[in-house]
Write a structure and sequence with these properties.
Shape: globular
CATH class of the largest domain: Alpha Beta
CATH architecture of the largest domain: 3-Layer(aba) Sandwich
Largest sheet: 9 strands, mixed
Helix content: 25-40%
CATH topology of the largest domain: Rossmann fold
Number of helices: 14
Length: 498
C-alpha cells in the first residue's frame, strides 16, 4: 500500500509560520488527521493543528516536547475521532530525512497513538522552503512499529505544491521530445508536472483531448475512468475513435489508452484504462489514488462525488462543460458557452458554481436518468436533455481546463486562482468569477475529513454503467448460444445416423 499526505493551504501556512523560525531553530507541534483510503494508497489529510503552550516544549537548537503536550494532543485526537501527527521542522530545503532523535521520538510514541486512536502515528517534517516529507508508523507486530515513507505530500488551495520522495517517484529522465515544453518553464517545473498521478474521469470528447495534452506534456501516469463504448454517434467529436472501434463497440478508455501510449513523451509512461464509473465504489477508490482529477462528465451524481473528493480528500478537481443552443429551424448557432474552473479548498465548489443540481443526484441514483420516458417528460430546455456538441468547441473546453490546471501547478508570477472562466461564443469574451462558496455550503465544512466526512452512501450501483456492461456482454452471450446450438445440432445428427 502506497502512502501520501495532504494539507489545505491555510493549515500549511499556519504550520510554516510556527515551525520555520526566524532564529533558525527547529520547532514542533501536533496535528489531527483523517484517513483517505484509495484502491492502492492511504493518504493522511491534515485537519487541524495542535500548537504547543509555552511550557509544553523546549527549543534548544533542536526541540523536545513534554509528556503533557503529547497527552493533551492525544486526548484531542480521541475526542475528534482523528489520527495524531507529529510535525517538526528541519534546517534546510526540500524533502527531509530523519535524525536518530527524530526516529526515537516518533517510534517511541507510535504505540500510544495507535492504541488511543486506532490509526497510525504520522510524522511530517517541513524544510525551510516549505517542502514537506511524511511517513506512517505501521504496527507490524506487538510493540513493534515500522516506518512507511509517503511517496508524496501535496498542499492544496489556490496553488498546489507537491514534494516527492525521489526513491518512490524518481524524476523522469529528460527526453528530446520535450525540449520545447521544458524550455517554457524549466526542468524543475517539468519534474514536478511529470510525477503527478492524474485521473481523467470521462473519456469522451473533452476527456480524450485533456488526456492527449497531458501525455504530450510529459505526465508519466494517467488514469482513465469511463464505462462506455465507442458508437457511431461519437465519431464527430471523439479523438482517435474510428468506425472500426464503433463497429466492435470498443471501450473508450481502451481506445484512448492505446493512442496515449503512442503519443506520450514520458518514459516510462503508465496509463490505467479502468472500465468504471467514479460513483461505483471501486471507481471512487481508484480516483482517490490520484493527485489531481479532471472532471469530464455531464451527470449530477459523478459531479457530486468529485466535489466531495476535492474538499474532503484534498484532491483538486478540474471541471468544465459546454452548452450549445441551436437556432430554430437549424439555421445556425443561437448561443454557445463553455466553462472551466477548479474545485479545491479556498475555491468555489461545483455545487455553488451550479455545475449540478443536488436534487438531481438522487434522481440519477434511482436510475430515472437512464429511463427514456422520464427524460422525454422533462422540459425541452432542461440541462439533462441537452446533448449538442461540436468537436471544435470541445477543444476550447479542454484548452480552458488544461490552462486552469497549469496555472495551479506551474510556478509563475501571476495569480494561480483567476476564478471560474466562462467563454461566450456569440459575444467573443471570457468572463471570470472569483466568488467563494456560499456561507451555508456544506463542502466547506468537509475540508480534510477524508473517509470520515460523515456522508454515507456516496457510492452505489450505477445503472448506466451496469447497463453498458450488460450490452457489451450480450453479443458474446448470443454468440456462445449460437455455437452451443451448432454443436448440439451436430451431436444430434451423429446420434441419429449412429
Amino acid at each position: 500500500m502506497k502512502a501520501s499526505a495532504a494539507l489545505p493551504t491555510p493549515i500549511h501556512q499556519d504550520a510554516m509560520r510556527h515551525l520555520v523560525r526566524k532564529d533558525g531553530q527547529e520547532d514542533l507541534c501536533f496535528a489531527l488527521w483523517n484517513p483517505s483510503q484509495g484502491a492502492a494508497r492511504l493518504t493522511t489529510c491534515i485537519r487541524q493543528l495542535v500548537l504547543p503552550r509555552d511550557s509544553e516544549r523546549e527549543v534548544h537548537g533542536n526541540v523536545s516536547f513534554t509528556p503533557d503536550f503529547f497527552a493533551r494532543a492525544l486526548a484531542l485526537a480521541r475526542q475528534e475521532k482523528c489520527g495524531l501527527a507529529l510535525m517538526h521542522s528541519h534546517v534546510g530545503p526540500g524533502w527531509q530525512g530523519m535524525s536518530p532523535d527524530d526516529v526515537a521520538a516518533e517510534e517511541g510514541h507510535a504505540p500510544a497513538a495507535f492504541g488511543a486512536t486506532g490509526l497510525p502515528l504520522v510524522g511530517l517534517t517541513i524544510g525551510t522552503d516549505g517542502a514537506w516529507s511524511a511517513r506512517f508508523w505501521i504496527r507490524s507486530a506487538p510493540r513493534h512499529y515500522e516506518r512507511n515513507w509517503c511517496e508524496s505530500v501535496r498542499v492544496v488551495g489556490d496553488r498546489m505544491l507537491m514534494t516527492f520522495d525521489v526513491g518512490q517517484r524518481p524524476i523522469p529522465p529528460p527526453r528530446g521530445e520535450q525540449v520545447r515544453t521544458v524550455s517554457a518553464w524549466g526542468a524543475n517545473a517539468q519534474a514536478d508536472l511529470a510525477r503527478l498521478r492524474i485521473g481523467v474521469v470521462g473519456a469522451g470528447s473533452v476527456g480524450a483531448i485533456v488526456a492527449e495534452a497531458l501525455a504530450r506534456m510529459g505526465v508519466a501516469h494517467v488514469r482513465l475512468l469511463d464505462f462506455d463504448v465507442v458508437e457511431q454517434i461519437n465519431l464527430d467529436r471523439l479523438l482517435h475513435a474510428t468506425m472500426k472501434d464503433a463497429v466492435h463497440r470498443r471501450l473508450k478508455v481502451k481506445v484512448l489508452a492505446k493512442h496515449l501510449r503512442l503519443s506520450a513523451t514520458a518514459r516510462p509512461f503508465v496509463v490505467d484504462a479502468l472500465d468504471l464509473s467514479v460513483v461505483e465504489e471501486s471507481g471512487y477508490r481508484a480516483a482517490l489514488d490520484c493527485d489531481v482529477l479532471f472532471s469530464c462528465v455531464d451527470r449530477p451524481w459523478p459531479r457530486f462525488v468529485l466535489n466531495l473528493i476535492a474538499y474532503a480528500h484534498l484532491i483538486p478537481v478540474v471541471d468544465g462543460g459546454l452548452c450549445l443552443t441551436p437556432m430554430a429551424g437549424g439555421r445556425g448557432l443561437k448561443r454557445g458557452t463553455w466553462r472551466a474552473h477548479i474545485a479545491a479548498p479556498s475555491r468555489r465548489c461545483l455545487e455553488c458554481l451550479e455545475q449540478y443540481d443536488p436534487s438531481d443526484v438522487s434522481i440519477e441514483r434511482s436510475g430515472l436518468l437512464d429511463t427514456p420516458r422520464y427524460i422525454e417528460g422533462l422540459p425541452a430546455d432542461h440541462p439533462l436533455r441537452r446533448n449538442e456538441n461540436v468537436f471544435g468547441l470541445s477543444l476550447s473546453v479542454a484548452a480552458l481546463e488544461v490552462e486552469q490546471f497549469l496555472r495551479m501547478v506551474v510556478p509563475h508570477p501571476g495569480h494561480a486562482n483567476i476564478g471560474a472562466q466562462t467563454a461566450h461564443f456569440v459575444r467573443g469574451v471570457i468572463d471570470t468569477d472569483l466568488r467563494v462558496c456560499d456561507a451555508r455550503c456544506p463542502f466547506c465544512a468537509l475540508v480534510a475529513t477524508g473517509d470520515r466526512s460523515g456522508l454515507a452512501d456516496i457510492t452505489g450501483r450505477h445503472h448506466a454503467a451496469e447497463n453498458a456492461r450488460a450490452r457489451r456482454r450480450k453479443p458474446k452471450a448470443d454468440q456462445l448460444i449460437s455455437v452451443l446450438h451448432t454443436i448440439w445440432g451436430r451431436l444430434s445428427q451423429k446420434t441419429a445416423s449412429g
